[in-house]
């Protein structure tokens, strides 16, 4: 059952140039893209840098105009809650507010996505200030509960983001994203900036939270190995288009599109035999 439907989404960023700053060209960042996010699933979205993954995520979050006021967006994005479908792009900011809290984002860079001048508890509390009528005591209680859920101590709430490691900062970002009890999380390369040893911890945390809160997750990554274990289905983006979408097993076992095959070949092979083979072929060509 879909919880989010994207239909014929196109996003064009105009490029201005010359002394008159005339509209000279456009970047077609997303082209006619349709997909469903199913309730409770993790949909991995992969593709090389510049393929339009973040633009897709930002379109779903409705934040493209914040950085690109002249952006042209067409198509439909609808949220399906309790059988009721709401077309989000037709609503004003005010009208869409009660729906928007159901969709939250986790960002790539835990270093720049947290306000360095805010205490951790205030960072996590902010979405509650904006979206709820809870009392201050209730908010504080919720912050402690959220910190616990992401594996941090409540005593750490009166510290600043710079006092935490990259992995801990991403845990703070995750706690913040969960504050409004969203149904949908868009995670834009949430582990790309982290050490490989930390990546698995964060991915495991997200899988646990998904189960506990019945989240539907769009997990964006630039390579297939990151999304393999977390995704029920995987969509492959290439040059603004969704070129293939299928169950994770099918993507790995019988990829249809040439670019998907290329992404599969780019995954490092952990097996020693394969490593020997590659070493031999390297030696052979040198
Ligand atoms: N605010 C913007 N203004 C102009 N072009 C943009 C903007 N954001 C993204 N783009 C362009 O859109 C294309 C897709 O970018 P993006 O969605 O960030 O790709 P990805 O996340 O897959 O790396 C790129 O060509 C990028 O330069
Ligand atoms: Mg991106």
Strand content: 25-35%
Low-confidence stretches: none
What's the alpha carbon Rg, rounded to whole Å? 20 Å
Order of helices and strands: EEEHHEEHEHHHEHEHEEHHH
Mean pLDDT: 91
Helix content: 25-40%
| Main sheet specs | 6 strands, mixed
Walk me through what this model shows:
With 286 residues, this protein is an alpha/beta fold. Helices cover 39% and strands 28% of the residues. It has 11 helices and 10 strands. It has helices spanning 53-61, 64-67, 93-100, 120-131, 136-149, 166-178, 196-213, 224-228, 248-253, 258-265, 272-285, and strands spanning 2-17, 22-38, 42-46, 72-81, 84-87, 103-106, 184-188, 216-221, 233-238, 241-247. The strands form 2 sheets. Strands 6-7-8-3-9-10 form a 6-stranded mixed β-sheet, sandwiched between helices. Strands 2-1-4-5 form a 4-stranded antiparallel β-sheet. Helix 7 links the parallel strand 7 (184-188) and strand 8 (216-221). Helix 4 (120-131) packs parallel to helix 6, helix 5 (136-149) crosses helix 6 and helix 6 (166-178) packs parallel to helix 7. The N and C termini lie far apart (54 Å). Magnesium ion is lined by residues 53-54, 188.
